[in-house]
Write the structure tokens for this entry.
Amino acid sequence: MTDKNLTEQTNTEKESKKSSTELSRRELVAAVVGATGMASIATACEGNDTTGVAALEVNQFQSALQTTSDPHWFDTLSAMSDASGGANPVIGVLAGYWSSDDGGGGLFYWDPDEPVSSDNGGTIFSGDDGGTGYGCWKRIYSGPVNVRWFGATPDETDNHDAIQAAVNYAVVLRQIVYFPAGEYTVKQTINLPIGSQLKGETGYQSAKSYGVDPGATTIYFEPTTEQSLFVASGTGYGPHSARFFYSIDGFYLCGNSETQTGNSKFALDLDEVGHSRFENLGIEKFRYGVRCFRTIDNRLVNIMASGTIAAVLYDGGNATTDVWDHCYIGNSPIGVQTNGTSLSVRFVHCLFEQIDLYGINLVKESDGFSFTDCYSENVPCTTGSTGAMFRVGHDGSTLPVGVHLSVSGGYYGGILGGAEGSWLDIDASDGVCVSSPTVTRYTNVIKCTDNTRDKSIVVSGLQGTSFTYFKTGPDEKLQGFYPSSVLNAATGYCQHAEFGRVTTPIIQKNRSGTGTVTANCQHMAVCDSGGAFYPRVDNQVNMGTAALRWNKVHAERVISTYLQRNEAGTGTVTANCQHMGVCDTNGAFYPRVDNSVALGTSNLRWQIIYAANGVINTSDEREKEDILPISDKLLDAWSDVEFYQFRWKKEPEKIQVGVIVQRIIQTFEKHGLNALDYGLISFEDDRFGIRADQCLFLETAALRRELQRVRGVK
């Protein structure tokens, strides 16, 4: 449309509508800038400051409105760039950037004193300067910066340059970059300076689902080499070059990585980003949806993230205190993957769904990850999978000091229609805390290895059904308490459980997996004041049965009326003490097999034996052989043995009397005898012992011989 035709059209409208020239001009520009723009113009006309027009330029803008009888109309930017407003400020109306009504138009005024070098491709455009180097059209606007002002179009054209120009311009003015709804193609990385704020038109959904295209602002990222879409860039602040105060809201971001080797690497590459907010985003067909490296205290809200490798990557660098709130993480081999050191990252009310292997794969170096009131379905989602919802400490090299993982509340489901993988699959870890989740459809609720620190898995109030084993792996790794329902839910038995203060009708399943230890268990209780574990009813409750025995019982003391008894009063102590027995009828304690069991050992001795009567040693001739008189040589040797007084090192307060075995051996050697050939000396476990009864018999025999010699008896 030429300026002449524009003038004729304007005059016709003025004559047919109203006689007021000022009002007619407002009607014309309102068709382009809308009600908001007209309000801004009205403010300027009333002499006030105007958003989008520098304070020093207000007078020029007002002068343009008052001196322009007819605005200059331009169908496209090309036409406006070829035009000049002359020596004075005038108003220009641009219908569109590339074509009329493409969203890139707006209201401008001609500034004859602005250098043409100020052209930024969106809010300032150089005009026909007549060779002077001065004269630009300046956009009059309020509110966010629109990417279409810089030439972005919702089509298959590469919009990289237009979007990058809009971002670079807006961040200087601390303004939002607005993306009207549409599908924008981008083929190169968009670098986001510190403080970048991007706002899409949220529409009615943020991702494609059920065959319905997104109604939100869509960016199709189609790089021809490996690149990421939005990358935090620019020099940061402080010793760690932190980049703060980003905001991205209301987009569907779709890459071209149909496989794990596609060119679209990260949708959001948050390198050293802190105190920022990302929300209402749909992300798919990237290798990783979101990468967090050295991030701190970001909020990620209402994000649907997926990836052909993992939906979320925590790449280390001491990333910390990020919060994921009401996010969907799924349709990926791995939901959240960590590398290196990341800590204290929180997931709150998040959904994990359709994940092939691991909901989160937490390496050794990363700790403090917490999941509060989250939900999972189909994790892992492949039949025969060895995957897990939480995989902890299998990868990496060095364990941190702290709790690897905390899970509080929530509902976690494995594959629909079956039981696959593990809920917790733990290798090397110093701590996993679980509080009151509901778990269903897993082969193992908890799986651990020898590398898991003893008693490092603390479980409180876990509920669940439809799993094969409550725990597999070594004992001594697990502690906590469990409602009876969760132990009954397994078809296998709970291999090990450490109980604190627990009141439960069922303690543990039996080895057949079909019954439970229930008889009189309802009488068990815990004394909270003193910590004693006792039966509520006296002398009615058994611990274990003859068929279901405890393997070991470790205790400092056992005080019992009977070592063991049954109703018939004929029971014996048999477990690992097959030679011991108790006669219940008369109370005698005896070895089950004659003359084959020692009471104590050389290293494990009774300190004192109290008895009302002496020890009876069997002396039946029918059980002896090689019976001879004691030789004079032996009596001579014994007569030379010295008696001593001494103190035991472990009992120095008392003086003892007796003999020393090594000195007996030396004395016997002088007489040509080997003391170890005689029963009076023993040597076991590198310790010498003496049989006092043998010594007394020898001493008595030697004294008798001397007495006979005095009496002249041969």
Summary: The longest strand covers residues 351-362. The first helix runs from residue 3 to 16. DSSP finds nine helices and 45 strands in the chain.
